[in-house]
Amino acid sequence: MIIFKTNLGDIKIALDFDNAPVTAANFKQYVEEGHYNGTIFHRVIKGFMAQGGGFASGLDEKETRASIKNEANNGLSNKRGTLAMARTQEPHSASAQFFINLADNTFLDFSAENVQGWGYCVFGEVVEGMEVVDKMTLVETGNLHGHGDVPKDEIIIESAIVE
């Protein structure tokens, strides 16, 4: 289990090492290294997702390790409450950024091993604290430093620990 202690409350996350072993281990390692401590949820879109893991306060981008293999072809679906890896258009570009699905976003699921079909790898789910995630969607968002959907009042992961 991973616990995110945020300024809105705690979120408890179960990682799926059986279906996404590389991704779950990568995420756990970032937690153990303290990477997520002090990071913000920098992109929140009501009815879609809340993204974090890449920026400290003020949208200060954090350094990451190398990208990992996309395991989105693991049979898991981007359902409400699941965690998936954020990435660029390059399917195998995920590193530290993740998002929590606020709705069933099955259009993000794997469909084929090509650029359009790779999808976004689900590797865990919120098992406690989904009401905290839902609170994130109540925060007003705007544009900041070229980024959209940025919460005007920062949503901070004060600490992330392995339980």
TrEMBL record:
GO terms for molecular function: isomerase activity. This is Peptidyl-prolyl cis-trans isomerase. It catalyses: [protein]-peptidylproline (omega=180) = [protein]-peptidylproline (omega=0). Signal peptide: none annotated. Residues 1-162 form the PPIase cyclophilin-type domain. InterPro entries: Cyclophilin-like_dom_sf (IPR029000), Cyclophilin-type_PPIase (IPR024936), Cyclophilin-type_PPIase_CS (IPR020892), Cyclophilin-type_PPIase_dom (IPR002130), E_coli_cyclophilin_A-like (IPR044665). PANTHER family: PEPTIDYL-PROLYL CIS-TRANS ISOMERASE CYP38, CHLOROPLASTIC (PTHR43246). The keyword Transmembrane does not apply.
